[in-house]
Amino acid sequence: MSCSRQYIDRRRALTAADGLVTGAFLSLAGPSHTAASAPARGPVFTAATEYTNPVIWQDFADIDVIRVGATYYASASTMHYSPGAPVLRSYDLVNWEIAGHSVPVLDFGPKYDLNGARGYVRGIWASSLAYRPSNRTFYWLGQIDFARTYVYTATAVEGPWTRLTTISTPYYDAGLLVDSDDTLYVAYGNTTISVAQLSPDGRNQVRTQQVFTAPSSVGTLEGSRFYKINGQYYIFLTRPANGQYILKSSNGPFGPYTMRQVLLDLRGPIPGGGVPHQGGLVQTQSGAWYYMAFVDAYPGGRVPVLAPVTGTSDGWPVVQLVNGAWGASYPSPAVPTPPRLVTPMIGVDTFDGTTLKPRWEWNHTPDNTKWSVGNGLTLRTATVTNDLYWARNTLTHRIQGPTSTATVQLDFSAMRDGDRAGLALLRDSSAWIGVKRDGGVTRVATVGGLTMDGNWNTTGTGTELASATVSGGGVWLRAAADIRPGAARPGTFSYSTYGTIFTRLEPAFSMGNDWRFFMGYRFALFNHATQALGGAVRVTRFELSTP
Known about the structure:
This protein is mainly beta. It has strands spanning 50-52, 64-68, 71-75, 81-82, 84-90, 96-103, 128-132, 137-144, 148-154, 162-167, 175-178, 184-188, 192-198, 205-213, 222-229, 232-239, 243-249, 258-264, 277-283, 289-296, 302-311, 317-319, 329-331, 347-349, 360-363, 371-372, 377-380, 395-398, 403-411, 419-426, 429-438, 441-452, 458-469, 474-482, 489-496, 503-511, 522-529, 536-545. The strands form eight sheets. It has an eight-stranded antiparallel beta sheet with strand order 4-25-28-37-30-31-32-33, with no helix packed on it. Strands 24, 26, 27, 29, 34, 35, 36 and 38 form an eight-stranded antiparallel beta sheet that branches. The chain has a four-stranded antiparallel beta sheet with strand order 2-3-5-6, with no helix packed on it. It is globular and about 75 Å long. The chain starts with 49 loop residues before the first strand and ends with a strand.
C-alpha cells in the first residue's frame, strides 16, 4: 500500500485502459499455503450461475485471501479504525461476511487514542493473514508506523486474537508464508523486496535477505503476497495503482527470482473505477485458481473484485479476461454447497447483546467507559471539542455501493447544552446531520465544511447549513450516499419526527473522490460535547439499506 508522501503518486494510474496480460499458472494443481488444510470431502458441483464484480461493494483494500478446508478468509487494511484488520469469511469466494478483527485494539500509542495526537492514515496498512496447520492457528502480521512489526494469533477468526510478538524490523506490505515444512517466511518491501525467516515459534527474525530489486522500467513494486506452489516460490507484487507482477524462484524462498508481468493498465469491471491490482491468489478445493484484487473506486474506497486464473505450462499465472478486460461477471466458482448463508453486511442493527457486531469500527481507539450496548447503543460524551475529527467514540460503518442509505433512530433526551450528536458522512472532507442542544433548545441541523489538509490536520470544523426545531426526546436521521466512482458524488441528509415521512435538509453534500486519505467515506455515529461532559444519546436502531 502506497503512502502519498513517501512513494509513487498514484493519481496518474487511476484511469483504466485496454489491458494486456502476460505470463501465467496453468499447472498449479498442487498444494499451496492457500489450501492450508486437507480439502473438504463432499460433492463438488460445477456452478451454473454467474457472479458479478465487485464481489463486495464496500471498502476492503490490500486483500490477503486464504482457504482453510472448505472456508475462505480474507484480511484488509483499516488504517486508523479500531478494531483493525477485519477478517472476512466465505464459502464460495463470492458471498462474504465479516467474522472478526485480527487487531482487537489499536494500542500503538496515544495518537491512536486521539490523546494529544491523531493517527489518521496510519495504523493498519497492507498486512498478511495465514493459517498454520501444525498448531491449527491463524496468524496476522503487519508493520505499524514504519517502526516495527506485530504478530497476532487466534485459533478461530472470531477471536480472541492475542499479540504473539513484536519484531523490530518493520515488514512493509508483508506477505506471510507457512512453508510445507512449517517454516515461517515473510516477503516484504517497496521496490527492494526482501525475504525474512522467522523462528519456529514465530516470535523472532532468524534471517533476512534482499531477493529482488524492481527494474527502473517498472518502478515501484510493493504489496507482497508469498506462495509455495508445486515446489516453486512466488512473490505476488503490485505496481500502484495500475499493475501486478509476480516473482518466481525454483531455488528456495531466498531466490534468485525472475519476474513476469501479470497485468498492466487493465480495464476494470467498475465504470469510473481504476485498474484491479494488489490482492491475493487462492485455490479452490477442485484445483481452480482465483485472483482477488481491489479497484480504486472513490468516494467509496477500494472494493474487491474476483477473476479466475489459469497458467502457462512453465507455471506463470494468467488472469482470464472478458473482451480484453477484467470481467464484470464470470461463472461462479465450483465449490461444495455452502454449509449456511453468510451474514449480510447490510440490514438492521438494534445493538442487542453485549458486544458490537463486527461490521462496526471506531474512529481511533474508543474510551470504553463512555459507551455501551444492550437495549441500543449508548454514547456518552467522551470529548469536549468543536472538531469532530478530535472527538472520541465516533462509531463508523462502511457504505454499501453503488448507493445506500443509513437511517438512525436517536434518543436525545439525555443531551446537555453544547452537545452535538448525529450521523455523519466521514472522511477528510465531511458533513453531518444531527441534533444540537443549546440554551435548552434542541434543533436538528446539517453541518458541512469539516475538512482536513494533506497532513490530516483540521482546516475546517464545520458550518451550519440548515436547521429545524424538534421537540420531544427522539428523532430519525437519514444519510443517503452515492459512491459510484469517477466523480464527486452527492450525499443527502433528511430527518423525521415519526420515522415515516422524511424531510430533506439542503444542500446536498459533495463527496470527493481523491484517493489520498485511502479509506473511503463511511457512515459515522457520533456524540461529543462543546461545553462539558455528562450528556448522552442512545441509538435504538441503525438500518443500512440499498434501493
